[in-house]
């Protein structure tokens, strides 16, 4: 699927100008990279927002039309309003066919229901990663990478280097890195872990009796003081008995 977006060169700059654009249903942005200088642009908010809802738009080569010319770009950054469904700013990067690009592409998981871990062992598939860092030439950029879970069993994981990558696509990882992409776990184990966490936390909270008990050296009289205090009632009782005898 190919995406085309229209933009106009933005003359006015600054916070006030950007605010006015947003009130008019426009989005301030910038396009940079390649051999040309960066250009401030503005786009229609409605069209841009609609495209942003499409997963493919985030990992595709886009055609940016501006002032009668067209150029190939990638979506590099989107700034959203803290609580409104409003795009505040957008960044695009120019691409060249003869230069590799670094992108994050989404992962699509398939065949989980066919895996022995789910079908025979009663497990559930857990997705650890949802996107993958890759490098490739623009023409080789995939819209997504498929993750086949059909051979996954309980207690085993699928790692990044286990994936079948499309032609021309390479992993953007250090040589020693091989993170987990997905695994199959037993639901009862997840429940036990969730129950164990509050139990451990509760063990650190003192009971009412523990909280009320005096700490060492606080509240309770010292051993010597206990003897003095305990002897007084007995001494008074002895004196009373002597008076009655007289």
How would you describe this structure to a colleague?
Helices cover 27% and strands 33% of the residues. It is of the alpha+beta class and 246 residues long. It has a six-stranded mixed barrel. It has a four-stranded mixed β-sheet with strand order 10-7-9-12, with no helix packed on it. The radius of gyration is 35 Å and the shape is elongated. The relative contact order is 0.10.
**Element string (H = helix, E = strand):** EHEEHEEEEHEEEEEEHHH
Biggest beta sheet summary: 6 strands, mixed, barrel
Q: Give the tally of β-strands.
A: 13
Percent of residues in helices comes to: 25-40%
Distance between the termini: 117 Å
- Quaternary structure classification: single chain
Q: Class by helix and strand content? A: alpha+beta
- Shape, principal axes of CA atoms: elongated
* Poorly predicted runs of 5 or more residues: 217-246
Mean pLDDT: 84
Structure annotation, total helices = 6
Largest beta sheet: strand ordering: 1-3-2-6-5-4
Portion of residues in beta strands equals 25-35%
Radius of gyration: 35 Å
Short structural description:
With 246 residues, the protein is of the alpha+beta class.
Detail the topology: elements first, then pairings.
Layout: E1 3-9, H1 15-23, E2 26-32, E3 39-44, H2 45-52, E4 62-66, E5 69-80, E6 87-94, E7 101-110, H3 116-119, E8 124-127, E9 131-136, E10 145-148, E11 157-159, E12 170-171, E13 180-185, H4 187-203, H5 208-212, H6 223-245
What descriptors fit this protein?
alpha+beta, six-stranded mixed β-barrel, 13 strands, elongated, four-stranded mixed sheet, 246 residues, single chain
């Amino acid at each position: 699927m190919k995406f085309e977006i229209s933009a106009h060169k933005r003359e006015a700059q600054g916070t006030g100008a950007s605010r006015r654009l947003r009130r008019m249903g426009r989005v301030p942005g910038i396009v940079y990279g390649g051999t040309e200088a960066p250009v401030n642009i503005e786009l229609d908010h409605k069209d841009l927002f609609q495209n942003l809802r499409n997963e493919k738009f985030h990992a595709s080569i886009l055609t940016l039309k501006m002032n009668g010319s067209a150029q190939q770009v990638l979506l590099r950054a989107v700034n959203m309003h803290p609580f409104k469904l409003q795009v505040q700013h957008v960044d695009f990067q120019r691409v060249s066919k003869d230069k590799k690009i670094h992108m994050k592409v989404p992962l699509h998981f398939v065949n989980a229901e066919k895996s022995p871990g789910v079908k025979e062992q009663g497990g559930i598939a857990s997705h650890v990663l949802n996107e993958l860092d890759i490098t490739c030439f623009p023409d080789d950029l995939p819209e997504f990478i498929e993750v086949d879970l059909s051979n996954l069993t309980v207690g085993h994981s699928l790692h990044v280097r286990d994936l079948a990558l499309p032609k021309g696509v390479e992993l953007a990882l250090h040589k020693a890195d091989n993170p987990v992409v997905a695994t199959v776990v037993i639901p009862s184990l997840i429940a036990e872990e969730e129950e164990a966490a509050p139990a451990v936390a509760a063990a650190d909270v003192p009971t009412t009796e523990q909280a009320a008990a005096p700490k060492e050296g606080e509240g309770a009289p010292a051993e010597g003081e206990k003897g003095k205090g305990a002897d007084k009632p007995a001494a008074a009782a002895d004196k009373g008995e002597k008076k009655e005898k007289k």
